[in-house]
């Protein structure tokens, strides 16, 4: 199906769009790294996402056997709102936006291991806020105090509750707080090509951030999201084929749905500005004359209680 790829012009002007200049140090590939080293890293990251950081549909959105839940149970909308809130916080604090992806990965795995937390939206909200607190502590040069999280909740949660929730989360996810992210795969995949990364990185990174808020993509391997983001961004088909072979990603219906989901997410959050260069596509042809631009959310983050 990759041999039948087409091109389209695509868009991306998003409220929660990230600045291209803000990169994660842990995901940058050293210029001196050999192709063999990059391939070895990709293989290790693939094993991690398959064996250690796997996530499933814990909200049962695609299952007819979903358990009955009470009126206060968290749902997809709750998760989306908390992801947006996390982006507001990291933008205000000038943290790396990829930290939100790590926080939501931790949250998804915690809820998969502790389904009782889904039954109460207050517990769900506390868990989401605490996951961000922990992700910042581990991956940012500066940590947030538990009282900061309590303050952002307007006192809905005490410092003690935040600390206890962190303990529960870490135990549930077995202290695994370094998941391979979609953006880390993007960096590694581009290192396997000869293309100018600056031409593709901003749009690919934008899509990886959109994917964090999409519950439908929570169970999709981050390597697949990265591959689809690069396809939407216009990576040549020959490079896509090589990457899929190195990462052992089969181009199946699941990959096609993922690319479509990312593409639709871009367009649903875009503003018409100008036509973009044609971009490579795994799935069928799309048409648009919208464009992307960078920008970060402005102003202080809203209180979590407002969500």
UniProtKB/TrEMBL annotation:
| A UniProt-annotated Pfam family | Cyclin_C
Query: Which superkingdom?
Result: Eukaryota
* Keywords assigned: Cyclin
Q: Which InterPro entries match?
A: Cyclin, Cyclin-like_dom, Cyclin-like_sf, Cyclin_C-dom, Cyclin_N
Region (Disordered) spans which residues?
286-307
Cyclin-like domain: which residues? 84-171
TM helices/strands, residue ranges? none
Its family?
Belongs to the cyclin family.
- Could you tell me what this protein is called? Cyclin-like domain-containing protein
Per the UniProt entry, what species is this protein from, by scientific name?
Grammatophora oceanica
